[in-house]
Write a structure and sequence with these properties.
The protein contains 9 helices and no strands. By secondary structure, the protein is mostly helical. The protein has one domain. Helix 5 packs antiparallel against helix 6 and helix 6 runs antiparallel to helix 7. It is elongated, with a radius of gyration of 22 Å. The model has no long low-confidence stretch (mean pLDDT 86).
Length: 261
């Protein structure tokens, strides 16, 4: 007989495999020459690994919401999770939110480069729907954090609100800048990397070091690292585009001729 626990274990196995691919391939496009063969090839693998990982995580979180004790029997013995509502909140609602965040960022980052010459296509129904879904998931994560008095859930939900706001800011632009799509592409895919590493450190720590699972410092490591990468690579894009443009503009300015005495 197929039980919720068996379905849960199958999804976890798929999640671990695809997530591991994402954890490794994330660094290739980050380090490789931008626009090069390795950047494009491994970037595509990373995107689809994240979409699979996030989609499966939605299923994992959903089974946890409906059967928290059956899917996580090992957690009941831990003081932090002896209440099934806490398991449902952390491994159900918060994981559901993070899964949707991962899919949102990966798909958004992919579309930014796919539609670099056709910006209105970024407003396709599925991309707009993902923003609505993420907003609802973030709001629910915040609310559930209030219910179980877990500040971590309330804090991490802010990332979702910021993601929706910045995504829509770009998507609804009538005339984006020449390299805006690159800045958003970086934000989206590095953001997906932050999400998967956050899940790896936080949820993976439950089995290895359960006392650290809800430690904010542990969750901050991938967030700080990812934001630093976003700032660095966006700065590189701006330097590559803005500086040559400024030099060309300077060359077009007629030089003042000083009369000789």
């Amino acid at each position: 007989m197929i039980t919720s626990h068996l379905i849960f274990k199958i999804m976890v196995a798929i999640h671990i495999i695809s997530g591991s691919v994402g954890l490794v391939t994330f660094w290739v496009p980050v380090i490789a020459k931008k626009g090069g063969i390795n950047h494009r090839k491994w970037g595509k693998i990373f995107v689809w690994a994240m979409i699979v990982t996030g989609t499966v995580a939605v299923g994992i979180a959903t089974t946890t919401i409906f059967a928290p004790v059956e899917t996580h029997p090992h957690l009941i013995a831990m003081p932090e999770f002896e209440n099934p509502e806490m398991i449902r909140a952390i491994f159900g609602w918060m994981m559901l939110y993070l899964a949707i965040l991962t899919v949102n960022l990966a798909w958004y980052g992919k579309l930014c480069i796919d539609n670099k010459r056709d910006h209105p296509e970024n407003r396709a129904w599925h991309n707009m729907a993902l923003q609505v879904i993420l907003f609802v998931a973030a709001a629910n994560c915040f609310w559930e954090g209030i219910v179980v008095a877990q500040p971590l859930m309330m804090g991490i939900s802010m990332v979702g609100f910021a993601t929706v706001a910045t995504n829509l800011w770009f998507m609804l632009k009538k005339q984006p800048g020449a390299f805006d799509w690159q800045l958003e592409h970086i934000k989206g895919l590095v953001g997906a990397g932050i999400s998967v590493y956050t899940a790896f450190f936080a949820f993976g720590a439950v089995r290895l070091l359960p006392e650290l699972a809800l430690t904010p410092a542990l969750w901050a490591v991938p967030l700080v690292t990812g934001i630093s990468l976003i700032i660095y690579h966006q700065a590189q894009v701006r330097r590559r585009f803005i500086r040559p443009a400024a030099l060309r503009a300077a060359e077009r300015v007629p030089q003042r001729v000083t009369p000789e005495n």
